[in-house]
Amino acid sequence: MLRHAPSVPRDAARSRDHGPMESTGTRGAPGGRRTPQRTWPARRLTGPAWLDGPMTSAHLVSGAAGLLLAIGLVMVFSASAIEAALNDQPAWRPGVDQVVFACIGMVALLVALRLPAGLVRRWAPIALIGSAVLLVAVLIPGIGMQLNGSRAWIDLGFTNFQPSELAKLVFALWGAHILAVRERFLTVQTLLVPLLPVFGVLAFLLYLEPDFGGIVSLGLVLLGLLWGAGLPRRFFGWFLLVGAAGLALMIKVAPYRMERITSFLDPFADPSDTGFQAIRGFYALATGGLWGVGLGNSAMKWNLLPEAESDYIFAIIGEELGFLGCMVVVTLYGVLAYAGFRIARRSTDRFVQLASVAITVWLVGQAALNMGYVVGLLPVTGLTLPLISAGGTSLVLTLFIVGLLIRFAVSEPAAIDHQRRRERGRLARLLLPVPAAAVDPVRPRRRSRPEPAERPARRPAVPGGRTVVRVPPPGRERVRTPSRERAPSARDRRGAPERGRGADARRQPPARARTATPDSRRPR
């Protein structure tokens, strides 16, 4: 006679330390006994509680950008002092210039904090036309200034302005505005048609300078817009093929670009010419080791590494601050990327979502490309390290972009509710006003005629819907309801009881209907 195992009590089914146990019906013995197996509860990786706060996005953006700016100012002072002294200039001159541009950039950041999203969207098309005009003007010999074989700057007297930096920012904002407007009826064709032609025109103007790094950065902005808009993945493969074909065409037109690719693959093949800068960057990183040689003790900045304060400043960071200093920089860019994507995920404004993704992909992608060619993983493109490399126009515009990201962060619904509940000081209200709504409407730049105060609500258009018109059946008169009721006169009040007498009393029509002809009472 078979003996069955007793049933497990309900209280014993839960472990005090390991959670619930569930029986999976596995036979543990030939006698038919079922042995319960322990099922471990799924644990989700969660961060600290403060990471889900309403103002976390704004704090992460401002903190990461502020630390990167501080590191950049210190390293520009360190990397440019020796070269300035060798050129019979004050050693502190390049660093002070960078501090001045940082102050101008902070003013631009404060301006961006007060810009509503609707105002940015309203003027984005006009700014795109203006940036295209500047890209054309820089090609004129009397206006544009040629440096390092590229006519990409306009001399303003106190600094050199680079229109390509402005074009990338305006293209990101304009593209986000166009995609947000077309969101309800967005298809692959309407997604690609407004963006690709404008990208082609701007890229062609940058090619005429020539500025290959600017084309790559503009491509990162386009990639961020298409990715944020939800373009199918198969189209990105086609874009890679088209990009490879365009790169081959550019190499065929200008053979010197092929030398950059060959020097990337084997820089030691020509250590005195095409591979000179890459090899010196490797020496700087190798000298730094884990801890670095100390701040200000770099040997490669003694005019041994070209563009040490701009393109190859990451190599100087690795030499003076070591591998740990490089990891701090990489981590800060990672925090900036997480904050940008967090803003896009938590915002309810479609324009803010697309603009945040495009700006984040642009900044972090440019930083990855710069660090990639410094360590020898990518070919040299001439892209600078955002917020760290020396440069006036790029630093001011980058800080303006950071201000836009902070403005987008405080426009999150949870952030708006948090700021309205807490008591804020006068300075906080002045520098960072609370947005009126999470979705800022776009108002026209000029109104031709005054609009009515209230408009009747319209039913939303349904794709594939039909309009149904109700037609009264033939022979039935349409009763017109008077728009305004007339107060009964004394004659009507006296005749009301008389008309109500009798069972077969019929309601008399009004005087206008009695005098009208029979044809006028027919239904239309």
Automatic annotation (TrEMBL):
Compositional bias per record (Low complexity), positions renumbered to this chain: 24-39, 459-470, 508-518
Pathway(s) this gene product operates in, as recorded in its UniProt entry: Cell wall biogenesis; peptidoglycan biosynthesis
Superkingdom of the source species: Bacteria
Membrane topology: Multi-pass membrane protein
Functional note: Peptidoglycan polymerase that is essential for cell division.
Database matches in PANTHER family: CELL CYCLE PROTEIN, PEPTIDOGLYCAN GLYCOSYLTRANSFERASE FTSW-RELATED
InterPro entries the UniProt entry points to: Cell_cycle_FtsW-rel_CS, FtsW, FtsW/RodA
Cellular localization per UniProt: Cell membrane
Protein name according to UniProt: Probable peptidoglycan glycosyltransferase FtsW
Keyword Signal: no
Residues covered by region (Disordered): 1-41, 440-524
Gene Ontology biological-process entries: cell division; cell wall organization; peptidoglycan biosynthetic process; regulation of cell shape
Any Pfam family: FTSW_RODA_SPOVE
Family under the similarity heading: Belongs to the SEDS family. FtsW subfamily.
Catalytic activity: [GlcNAc-(1->4)-Mur2Ac(oyl-L-Ala-gamma-D-Glu-L-Lys-D-Ala-D-Ala)](n)-di-trans,octa-cis-undecaprenyl diphosphate + beta-D-GlcNAc-(1->4)-Mur2Ac(oyl-L-Ala-gamma-D-Glu-L-Lys-D-Ala-D-Ala)-di-trans,octa-cis-undecaprenyl diphosphate = [GlcNAc-(1->4)-Mur2Ac(oyl-L-Ala-gamma-D-Glu-L-Lys-D-Ala-D-Ala)](n+1)-di-trans,octa-cis-undecaprenyl diphosphate + di-trans,octa-cis-undecaprenyl diphosphate + H(+)
Gene Ontology cellular component terms for the protein in this record: cell division site; plasma membrane
Key word Manganese present: no
Annotated TM spans: 60-86, 98-117, 123-145, 188-207, 212-229, 235-254, 282-300, 312-339, 351-375, 387-410
Organism whose genome encodes this protein: Geodermatophilus ruber
UniProt keyword annotations, A-Z: Cell cycle, Cell division, Cell membrane, Cell shape, Cell wall biogenesis/degradation, Glycosyltransferase, Membrane, Peptidoglycan synthesis, Transferase, Transmembrane, Transmembrane helix
Bias (Basic and acidic residues): 11-20, 475-507
EC number, UniProt record: 2.4.99.28
A molecular-function term among this protein's GO annotations: peptidoglycan glycosyltransferase activity
